[in-house]
Write a structure and sequence with these properties.
126 residues, mainly alpha, elongated, membrane, transmembrane helix, transmembrane
């Protein structure tokens, strides 16, 4: 496996952990606060770095089922982070999350988990 792809896999795991902390905190406490926006933002930035490294380190085409899942999961994650930042800025620190936001967060995190483990299984089976 290409060293860039290995580093990308490591960075995507850090992104998964950061995004998980932000999402789980939001769902658990139902508050969009500094911790939530910080960890979601770190997750997005790390995901961008990881995707770039994995695409550069991959021998195949990025236009695969996993590539589509990963890109879609990233967009869902990005929407979540932007939504949180908009709430955080507009409604102030530690604003209460709306029910629709909680549902979206749960769905987005589940989708991201599926994409993450799909990529992990692909690496294991190669």
């Amino acid at each position: 496996m290409n060293p860039l792809a290995i580093i990308g896999a490591f960075v995507i795991t850090l992104s998964f952990l950061a995004y998980g902390v932000g999402s789980i905190s939001l769902v658990r406490f139902r508050i969009v606060g500094r911790i939530v926006v910080t960890f979601l933002s770190i997750g997005v930035v790390l995901d961008i770095v990881a995707i770039t490294l994995m695409v550069l380190g991959s021998k195949g085409s990025p236009f695969t089922l996993h590539g589509f899942l990963g890109a879609t999961a990233f967009l869902v994650m990005l929407v979540e982070a932007i939504w949180c930042w908009k709430m955080y800025i507009a409604e102030g620190r530690d604003c209460k999350a709306h029910k629709t936001h909680i549902i979206y967060t749960k769905a987005a995190y589940l989708f991201w988990v599926v994409a993450y483990f799909t990529g992990s299984l692909i690496v294991i089976w190669r």
